[in-house]
Structures are given as C-alpha cells and as structure tokens.
Amino acid sequence: MLSAFVPIWILTTIGYAARRWGLMGETATAVLGRFVFHLAMPAVLFLTLSRMPLSGFFGRSLLAFAVSVAAVVGVGWAGASRLFGRKPAERPIWGMAAGYVNSANLGIPIATQILGNVTFLAQVVLLNVLVVTPVILGALDRHRDPAGRVRVRQIATLPVRNPVILASLLGILCSAADLHPPSPVVSSLTLLSGAAVPTALVALGASLHGAGAPRVEPAELAVITALKLVVQPIVAWAAGLALHLSAPQLLAVVVCAGLPTAQNTFIYAQEYGTGEAVVSRAVVVTTTLSLATLAASAALLG
What are the boundaries of each domain within the chain? Predict the structure, then answer.
C-alpha cells in the first residue's frame, strides 16, 4: 500500500518545491491544470472507457457504494453553505471534495493489494465518470451563468463544450459498438494520457505554495476529511449490510468508499475558478491519512 502512496507524495512535493524555488511562473498552475483538463484527462477517460466492458455495470455492491457517494456529496454540498458560508458556485466542489474517490491512479494499486483484483473498482470508475462527474460539472457550468439559471440549451450542449464529458461519451460509444481506433491514434492518446496524473499532481503541489494559497479554516478541512475517510466508509458499510452483501463484497465497497479525494477534483475546481484552496488541501490531507484508515478497514473487514 505504501508504494502506491509514495509517488503521489513525491510528485506533489516536487510541484510545491518548483513553485517555491521560482522554477514555475505565476500562471504555471493554471496552465498545467488546463492542459490536464482539456487534453490529458480526456485522453485517459477515452482510452479507459473504450476498453472497459459495460456489461454487469449495476449490482447491489455498486448500489451500496452509490448510496455512500450520494449521502456524503449531498451532506458536503449542503454543509458548505450552512456551516462555512460557502457561495453557491463553491458548494458542488465542496461536496465533490467530500465524496469523490480517487478510483484511478490510487484506487487500482490499493484494490489490487487489498482486494486481489479490480473488478469492482472498474464499476466505481464507471459510476464516477457516467454519473457523478456530469452532475458536478453540470452544476459548475450552471453557476457560470451570470443569472445562475438552468438553460436547456446549456445542458444539452454541455457534452460538446466539456472535453471530459465528451471524451467519456466517445469512449462509451466505442466500447458499446466494439470499435477500435487506428493504432497511431491509440499510441498518441496513450502518450498524452501518461502525462495526466503526474501533471495534475505537480499542479496540485504548486497550488500549495504560500504566495498563491489562500488560508483555509482548519475546521472546514477537518469536516471534509471526516466525511471522506470516516463517514463515507461507514455509510457504505451500513448500506452493504442492509443489502445483504457477502463479506468480500462488503470489504470491496468499504475500501473503495474509503479512498481519498481524487486530484481530479482540484483540476475541476481550478478550471471553473472556484474552491481551489480548500480542495487542494483536502486532496493532500485525505491522501496522507487514508493510508491509515484504509489499513484499518482492511484489518477490520478482511
């Protein structure tokens, strides 16, 4: 498990050091974030989904996990304004920081180590991409409207205007139709996708440098961390018991629910210019502490 966490900490530290030592300019974090959002992340999503079978997507295990995501994201979304006075545009990001799990680059090695396979994690990835991400990005897109109105045209054109959703839809279509892009296209996208995770982590680390890092209330960060690492696994466990999951299924659901906040959350916050400070710290803190909480979950349920 430790070997899965160390690269994340190292790359984040490199980003912080590069920004602190003046190796990157004032706009470097924004430029790196836009590169990930518009180019590298769409390449990752397209390749992942185009190769992922869509059969057997829904089941009791995924339902239990979905209940934990909906509950925690909903509480975070509402609590952001009630407890900490966050503006409407910041609430979706706050909820995402509390309930959107790092199912890809960290989830895969953790699932392999604790669960022995990534079968259930593949369903978690699909849920994140097909349901959670469009809901969050749709809400953020709505708040870009000066009047905050929900426009039918705006919603209908969101998949075309948003590269993350567009790439996901194209990947799903290729998987459903069993289409295989030409080899040069796949090779190019593979090279581009390889830059997504390290670039996002370097950008995350750079955002933590004091010169451009607004102060975040410790209480706010503590609430997000508790929701992500304690409340969400407990809700997943309770939902799993209610749905009569077997012991291996229950372990998979709880471990996946206990994964830390995904760095994609920071990229989305940066792209929409809202909540970057609290999200960047939430990613770092939950990633650091989840090593202990995931080990505890595995020990209790394994």
Answer: 2-301
- Residues sharing a CB contact under 8 Å with residue 148, sequence separation 6 or more, in sequence order: 88, 142
| Collapsed DSSP state (helix, strand, coil) of residue 261 | strand
Residue 292 makes CB contacts below 8 A (sequence gap 6+) with none
CATH class of residue range 2-301: mainly alpha
pLDDT at 122 > cutoff 90: no
Buried b / exposed e over 114-125, threshold 16 CB at 10 Å, is bbeebebbbbbb
Q: Tokens 């809400």 map to which residue?
A: 139
Task: Kindly report the average pLDDT of the chain as a whole number.
Answer: 85
Whole-structure pTM value: 0.82
Return the sign of the alpha-carbon dihedral for residues 31, 33, 38, 41. positive
Confidence check: pLDDT of 54 > 90: no
Question: What is the pLDDT at residue 158?
Answer: 63
